[in-house]
Write a structure and sequence with these properties.
Elements lengths: L1 H54 L4 H11 L4 E5 L2 E4 H17 L7 E5 L4 H12 L3 E4 L6 H9 L5 E5 L3 H12 L4 E5 L10 E2 H6 L17 E6 L9 E5 H14 L7 E4 L6 H12 L4 E4 L8 H7 L4 E5 H8 L14 E5 L3 H11 L3 E6 L8 E2 L9 E2 L10 E4 L25 E7 L14 H6 L1 E3 L7 E11 L4 E7 L4 E3 L2 E3 L1 H11 L5 E6 L8 E7 L7 H9 L10 E5 L13 H6 L10 E5 L4 E4 L2 H9 L5
Parallel strand pairs: 1-11, 3-4, 3-5, 4-8, 5-6, 6-7, 10-11, 10-12, 12-13, 13-14, 25-26
Antiparallel strand pairs: 1-2, 8-9, 14-15, 16-21, 17-18, 18-20, 19-20, 20-21, 22-23, 24-25, 26-27, 27-28
Helix pairs in contact: 1-8, 3-4, 5-6, 8-9
Amino acid sequence: MNTITRENNDELFFLFAWFQAIVNLFLLIFNTSGRDLRALYRYIRCKTFLAKCERKNLTVPSLFQVNVRKHPYKPCFLYENQIWTFQDVEDFSNRVANCFTEQGFLPGDEVALFMENKPEFVALWLGLSKIGIVAALINTNQRLQALAHSVTVVKSKAIIFGSELLDAVKDVSNTLDRNGLKYYCYGNFDPKSFSVNSLDTLLLHSLPVSPLTISQVNFSDRLFYIYTSGTTGLPKAAIIKHSRFIWLGTCVRWMLNMPDNEIYYTSLPLYHSAAGLLFTCQAVVHGDTVALRRKFSASKFWEDCIKFNATVAQYIGETCRYLMAQPVQPEQRQHRVSTVIGNGLRPTLWSSFCKRFQIKTVGEFYGSSEGNTNIINTNNTTGAVGFISRIIPSIYPVTLIKVDEATGEPLRNKDGICVKCKPGEPGEFVGKIIKNDPVRNFDGYVNEQATTMKVAKNVFSMGDLAFLSGDLMVMDENGYIYFKDRTGDTFRWKGENVSTMEVEAAISQVLGFTDCVVYGVEIPGTEGKAGMGAISDSKCAIDFNTLAQNLKKFLPLYAVPIFLRVVNNLDSTGTYKLKKVNLQQEGYDMNRVKDPLYYLDMNTVKYTPLDQDVYEKIISGKIRI
């Protein structure tokens, strides 16, 4: 009798599980089929366009010339009080191409471009690309060792630089001279201070006619190099081919279903892929107008949008915080911007940002200059960086895989294949590599060793290759992807995983969008790493009596930082990513850190100044954290 009852129960359990699976499948189809079909149509449109470009061997300069013929006097770039028409950019870039041909440069040569935002920046690399020269787009914040490294790592034969950066170039000239480098300065400068070629003069003597060699440039050739941000170590030069430039810019446009004749505004640096590739592509390849600013300004952002009549603006997460921290002004709601495109808008800011600045659509995307794990939020889902279709995931082979919390290495099953994450499980975002496919290939870096480190084998199946993004994500039941952290940034404390991004968001929100970074530090005699935050507070405005209590409203107690460091300002990359490597190395060491330090007194749950006596007691274990 008991056996029969047990069998009946098993049958009922099986039937219930089967019924539940069917219901979940129907709910998934109901919730996501419309999204997936719309995205699939747009994706096919992008791939069809790219296939046409490949078949006809169309390149970035040849596509640009199509736009020049179509509307030569339409504004291509707006900058300060200047209007650069498509014909103006064409003429300038032709002069550049002819000038460097006359200077003896050949297809395949590499030239460093070191210049602040201005239309000439784009026209220079565009002109070089017409004769097959590959430009290396150098971060304008780099100096000394980092600058010399970036110029030489790609075997540059020359450096073109703006006169505003002459001193920086001069400082590394002794190092660069060993390689027989040629110098070309654009803009006004004193020739007595530094003996270099005046590019302005050379361009005046070059013809604005299209070079004959433009037809010899190929769809699969290298267009330029973009450098990784350099938050850790020296920058790596990522290879951007004509095909990749066309693909990424086109995907952002058509996956978001952007109409023609928009005016795009960006104040992000042109040496980075966000502005220099995604937004520049809208002008160069697709014939729209792009408005530029030399450097980001939170106080002038919306004024610029009104001035240029912009309809689309670009952001990264940090710039959104800066805009939210500005006093409320009328012009913040008098602009025509309805869509913002970028990455890093934190979920905690998303709704309030849109409401305050009357933004209808947020085109949040995820990707890297060099990687093939690019996704985009096509339907304005709050907080998501994109999605993976759970009905037809093979259409776009990207996924989340489980990684070892301690080493960051992928976890594998008994067959040696990487283990995919289920909804709700964090994992590293990876993309399948398909050789000779301009969409799925990974072109990598100039440094082959750096390229190898970003590739894993046997990920989707035995014998395959995949690009490792280095970012931890989490997927929900409907396939929406949410950024969690950089691999290596998440640390473990009190038996729990702590996301630095989550803690940074909480501190910033509590302190009114203040800059901060969070990292893990070791305490002798304890397991894992304790949280430590560095906060920018030049005005000494932080109330440490209430800070911990306020953080507890947003974070579990184990995630509240144990140590705080107060600094006047935090170093950042050119794209406003805050650096934390040096801060993490110094930790809370009283012998190395001169800034004010605080620790969380667990008895009072308040932050208390850290002095030498308390520091030594923590190190010796007399004070238990």
